[in-house]
Amino acid sequence: MSSASTDHPTRRERLRQQTIDEIKQRAFELVDADGAHELSIASVGKAMGMSPPALYRYFPSREALLEALVVDAYADLGSTVASAAQKGSDQEAPARVALIAQAWRRWALTHPRRYGMLFSDRSPAAQDPPEGVVAVNQGMLPLLAALREIAPPSSGTGGPFEESLLRWGKAIGAPADIMPRALRLGVLCWSRVHGLVSLEIAGAFDSMGLDGELLLAAEIETVVGQAGA
Amino acid sequence: MSSASTDHPTRRERLRQQTIDEIKQRAFELVDADGAHELSIASVGKAMGMSPPALYRYFPSREALLEALVVDAYADLGSTVASAAQKGSDQEAPARVALIAQAWRRWALTHPRRYGMLFSDRSPAAQDPPEGVVAVNQGMLPLLAALREIAPPSSGTGGPFEESLLRWGKAIGAPADIMPRALRLGVLCWSRVHGLVSLEIAGAFDSMGLDGELLLAAEIETVVGQAGA
DNA sequence: TCGCTCTTGTTACGATCCTTAACGGTAGCG
DNA sequence: CGCTACCGTTAAGGATCGTAACAAGAGCGA
């Protein structure tokens, strides 16, 4: 043990991290090209000019590599959305909602197979990926902030549903004075955007002759309208 | 050639169909248990007491078997939703919307891995499965009928988006006098339900402490409200 | 009824992949 | 400067997909 890996990275540690990064990069290229299904240790090795077993020095299994890709993809999606929200921080709240939703969709359409890797491909009730939750929240928090600006103050009814929303809001660090309505719309907005994007990637709208961008615009309008009403 | 396979099924044809059905049934069991990923020709063969290559007499490849399962699952989902709509045909339109959405969710939660097989697992822009479209429309048509009852007549603006909606409505056999608003809400309702169910299956709401049923109820309310407004 | 033939199932095989094991070289590190 | 840990290689076991060659039987027509 020379040093904490984050402090003074030893040359060894740097090279090792570099190799890990290249593996993940090549793996992402292969996932983007053929889908996560087709990703094989052997193909990554061939792409890097390494023999397949060598990769086991860096990832204990194919599944572990995929898991690492999922974590990275989540982080990329989250920071992309958060950065879009940041970039529009001088705009009105409804415009920010639109920016966030569109950034989500754009990322998904740019990396459809990575997006599928995150939400669809996964085994049901997969492991607990706290990384994924954290990343999604990176986009969720600006969304909630925008919705909070739009939503007028109201007297909460205080039912169990509202309470669970407030608990969740507190857990992810939303503003303390946020209303259940804004929290509910945050979840539903996320779900709506995900539903649209998911169907669009699956090609459902192509065969219907519909435009995913227009459908997303309609949903954004709905969310903003619901928040303001 | 003895007879058209549908007319006077020869004994051979009957036995063959029986074998095909058993293969699909066992395969569904394995998919439900371990996910479509894990489905292997060998495991189906073992479950049936057959050697793996024997299955190639019935399906040319593992992919073809999966494709057949997808078609069957689509048909099952579609007829389940349609039957729920049928069963509520004496209720008010908003209640019918709720029944359709809840039937969709229930099917998905009952067969989560099959549901994943339909929308998530698929390669992007997979082949054209007209079967899937047909099956989804089986639930879409009653939904559109209900929304048409709720939506008040209005003067369509006639933009390109509305035109594409009308084209789609005509293509799937919706009532000729249906309004673009109802068509748009039909698509969005489908997308919203799919988004919610998809996230619920992925376990997203568990870690948030939220109840998928309540979220779906909120969305149903939204759709009905949008249709009536 | 009889015999042909198509169907169906088997085993054997090659290819690919995951993963572990055993081995050697080299470069970082004290 | 030498040691050691790390890295990569080849070899090998196990599983799977899919093909080929073969054997048996049952359906179907004459």
Protein architecture, described:
The structure is a homodimer of 229-residue chains. Chain A is an all-alpha fold. Chain A has two domains: 1-60, Arc Repressor Mutant, subunit A, CATH 1.10.10.60; 70-228, Tetracycline Repressor, domain 2 (Orthogonal Bundle), CATH 1.10.357. The first copy, chain A, is built from nine helices and no strands. In chain A, helix 3 packs parallel to helix 6 and helix 6 (130-150) packs across helix 8 (180-201). The longest helix of chain A has 26 residues, at 62-87. Chains A and B meet through helix 5, helix 7, helix 8 and helix 9 of A and helix 5, helix 7, helix 8 and helix 9 of B. Chain A binds a DNA duplex (30 and 30 nucleotides) through helix 1 and helix 2.
Question: Which short descriptors sum up this protein?
Answer:
homodimer; 229 residues; mainly alpha; Arc Repressor Mutant, subunit A; Tetracycline Repressor, domain 2; globular
Number of domain modules of chain A: 2
Strands of chain A, total number = 0
SS-derived structural category of chain A:
mainly alpha
The CATH superfamily of the largest domain in chain A appears as Tetracycline Repressor, domain 2
Per DSSP, what share of the residues of chain A sits in E-state strands of 2 or more residues? under 5%
N-to-C order of helices and strands of chain A: HHHHHHHHH
Number of continuous helical runs of chain A: 9
The shape of chain A is globular
Mean pLDDT of chain A: 92
Query: Quaternary state, please?
Result: homodimer
Give the radius of gyration of chain A. Answer: 20 Å
> What is the CATH class designation of the largest domain in chain A?
Mainly Alpha
Major β-sheet annotation of chain A: none
| CATH fold title of the largest domain in chain A | Tetracycline Repressor, domain 2
Largest interface: A-B, 48 and 48 residues
What fraction, in percent, of the residue positions of chain A are helical? Answer: 55-70%
